[in-house]
From TrEMBL:
The lineage of its organism: Bacteria, Bacillati, Bacillota, Clostridia, Eubacteriales. This is Tripartite tricarboxylate transporter substrate binding protein. Keywords: Signal. It comes from Anaerotruncus colihominis DSM 17241. Residues 1-27 form the signal peptide. The keyword Signal applies. InterPro entries: BUG, Bug_dom1. Belongs to the UPF0065 (bug) family.
Length: 329
């Protein structure tokens, strides 16, 4: 082979190698995460779900690569149903996560939501608090027992706010009606628990059910009071407030959780990276101190435990939701 042929052959091989390198480099998968991560929040600003979501990602942001950030997006319309459906249908690539709320384990059982918890994989639960009965500080009852007595004497007069018909807090009120033989007027505020608390403080309603921490600042300010919590034990934030079982013998536990979740087909390696990020975040003493100040009892429910919690509740509510099915027709 003469020198000219060798030169041409060498140039051809170099070109092939260069193209191979360029092609290989351009198609090599990027390490997750390499772009911003959207967090869908199915509640409005100011409520427990929004506060827990934003606090969680604020403390987790330093665990992301430089240039990557979390993008929280509130979509409370329609009690958050459309938001959760959007999250279920998102690409399972880890770049769209949803702060799934307990209603995702409830509404599908009465035909009010086309997605279910089975369409998601839970990553962590920054909040899993019991329902509590909250009333104005100047209400004419200071105990849960007196509240029930008043409700019996004034059927259909007490207006109870809730974040959405068929949701966990509406269902808590319905269970009190069913168990104690009383009648409330149910007033929905689709923007979330924060809107319910605002309505209560403003005198537009007489009571609401919410997690204890959602009323922490108002209780401390002396404008609201909590009469009881629906749990087996008293709330760490309000140790002087009795459980419903202690006060009136109602042995019923109801908890409102929010589980940061991904579409069910998320790759295992991406899922594990997210679990690691949020496990470290939730174990951070600074984060736990923050949640207590926000009125949220610190949670360490992460990974498969979070996923199993919401799916176990899904089975429970398959039966319990029939209590409110008639009110949703």
């Amino acid at each position: 082979m003469n020198m000219k042929c060798r030169r041409i052959l060498g140039m051809a091989m170099a070109t092939v190698l260069a193209l191979t390198c360029v092609t290989g480099c351009s198609t090599a998968p990027k390490e997750y995460p390499s772009e911003d991560i959207t967090i869908l929040i199915p509640r409005g600003a100011g409520g427990g779900t929004d506060t827990s979501a934003r606090g969680l990602i604020e403390f987790a942001k330093d665990k992301l690569p430089k240039g990557v950030q979390f993008l929280p997006t509130n979509k409370p319309e329609g009690s958050g149903v459309a938001c959760m459906i959007e999250g279920a249908n998102a690409d399972p690539d880890g770049y769209t996560l949803t702060m799934l709320i307990v209603e995702a384990a409830m509404l599908p059982h009465v035909g009010r939501m086309d997605a279910t918890v089975e369409d998601f994989k839970g990553i962590c639960a920054p909040i899993a608090d019991p329902a509590a009965l909250i009333v104005p500080a100047n209400a004419p009852y200071n105990t849960l027992e007196k509240f029930i007595e008043y409700a019996k004497e004034h059927p259909g007069e007490i207006q109870v706010a809730n974040p959405g018909i068929g949701g966990i807090m509406h269902m808590a009120a319905v269970n009190v009606e069913e168990t104690c033989d009383v009648e409330f007027v149910h007033v929905p505020y689709p923007d979330g628990t924060g809107a319910c608390i605002a309505a209560l403080v403003g005198g537009h309603v007489d009571a609401t059910f919410g997690t204890p921490g959602t009323a922490l600042s108002q209780v401390e300010a002396g404008t609201l009071k909590i009469l009881g919590v629906m749990d087996s034990t008293r709330c760490e934030l309000f140790p002087d407030v009795p459980t419903f079982k202690e006060a009136i013998g109602l042995d019923f536990e109801m908890r409102a959780w929010a589980v940061l979740s991904a579409p069910k087909d998320i790759p295992d390696d991406v899922y594990e990276k997210l679990v690691t990020i949020f496990k470290e975040t939730m174990e951070d003493p600074a984060y736990q101190e923050y949640t207590m100040k926000q009125g949220i009892v610190p949670s360490t429910i992460v990974g498969e435990e979070a996923d199993q919690m919401m799916k176990a509740d899904n089975e429970v509510y398959a039966e319990l939701m029939q209590l409110v099915a008639d009110q949703m027709d």
